[in-house]
Automatic annotation (TrEMBL):
Name under which the protein is recorded: Outer membrane protein
Keyword entries, A-Z: Signal
Superkingdom, taxonomy of origin: Bacteria
Residues annotated as signal peptide: 1-20
Species assigned in the record: Legionella quinlivanii
InterPro entries from the UniProt entry: Major_OMP_Legionella
Lineage of producing organism: Bacteria, Pseudomonadati, Pseudomonadota, Gammaproteobacteria, Legionellales
Length: 328
């Protein structure tokens, strides 16, 4: 009889504990160092600015200019690599941090730099007579680039020294490359035209999803190595406008085209971060190297004998950056 009563009491106890577990509060997120954890709940803001010193880079026909050719044999041609000038840009950043490592972040990257290139050598195609004449020219290029990201992120700690931030959201990009060629042609042509210049302008603007990872490895409580990689696929419009203008007021050639495009992009950074505690938070000093590339974002017109063929070119930027970010 005693044995049966003991078993009954144990059964009731186990049932009560199980029922209590079913209706109890779930455990709070951990914030102790371990294999994979998230930060403790906090509400913070951060503001950052970076100075960028970048050089543009192109592909396809925009990456080459004629270096020389034999007019008697147009197949014998050599090309010079287009080497645009370096220029300054900036990147602004603002974030709101909430819950256990979540954030909403907006960034704006802006770049606007001019290049004076040449002289380049080679024949000039005369549209009115469909012939080539020898000449040289200098090229002036204006590169303008804007990129805006609005993303949500999640901070994750991998042990005591490693942490990462995974993010995703929307990206908008506006790329404009305006090129003007000023030709030095034979005197007979100069006398008839009072000079010739060629416009070759192209642009792309689009929007689409972006995902990325910010990674850091702490070498000390204040100093860390940082890396970032991101990718996007944008849908937008790509345009091309090319015109030959004689200074007597004649537009001898005018090509224009516009099309919808899907443009993927890739972005990467490698750098370092120094965290300096201040009265109202932490001031981070950042520096490193930054590269990005938009694939087939731009258009160009290639002259092949007496036809004009539209080609595509990447647009890239690369160079060092230095900045400050306050978190508090």
């Amino acid at each position: 009889m005693l044995k049966k009563m003991t078993l009954a009491v144990l059964g009731l106890t186990v049932s009560s504990m199980a029922a209590a577990g079913m209706y109890s509060e779930p455990p709070a997120p951990t914030c102790t160092p371990g294999d994979v954890t998230v930060p403790c709940e906090a509400k913070q803001w951060d503001l950052g600015i970076q100075a960028l010193y970048l050089q543009p880079i192109y592909s396809a026909s925009r990456g080459y200019r004629l270096g020389g050719t034999l007019l008697s044999n147009l197949s014998s041609t050599y090309y010079n690599d287009v080497d645009p000038d370096w220029g300054w840009g900036y990147r602004l950043e603002g974030s709101y941090h909430f819950r256990t490592g979540n954030d909403i972040t907006a960034t704006w990257m802006h770049y606007d730099a001019d290049s004076k290139l040449g002289p380049y050598f080679g024949p000039f195609y005369v549209a009115t007579t469909q012939t080539f004449i020898p000449g040289t020219y200098r090229q002036y290029v204006d590169n303008r680039f804007d990129q805006v990201n609005v993303v949500m992120g999640q901070h994750v700690d991998f042990g005591l020294l490693k942490n990462a931030r995974f993010y995703g959201g929307l990206q908008y990009a506006d790329i404009q490359v305006d090129a003007t060629n000023y030709y030095n042609l034979p005197l007979t042509v100069q006398a008839a035209t009072f000079g010739i210049r060629t416009f070759n302008n192209t642009d792309f603007n689009g929007v689409g999803p972006v995902i990325g990872i910010d990674y850091s490895y702490d070498l000390s409580p204040s100093f860390s190595i940082t890396a970032n990689t991101a990718g996007s696929i944008l849908y937008g419009t790509s345009r091309i406008n090319r015109a030959d203008v004689y200074n007597v007021g004649l537009v001898a050639l005018n090509d224009y085209g516009s099309k919808h495009s899907i443009v993927p992009s890739f972005e990467a950074k490698l750098g370092a971060n120094y965290a300096y505690p201040v009265a109202q938070g932490v001031l981070n000093i950042q520096g490193g190297y930054h590269v990005l590339n938009y694939f087939n974002a731009l258009q160009d017109v290639e002259f092949q004998c007496c036809t004009r063929v539209v080609a595509y070119s990447d647009f890239g930027l690369y160079g060092p950056y230095l900045g400050l970010k306050w978190v508090g």
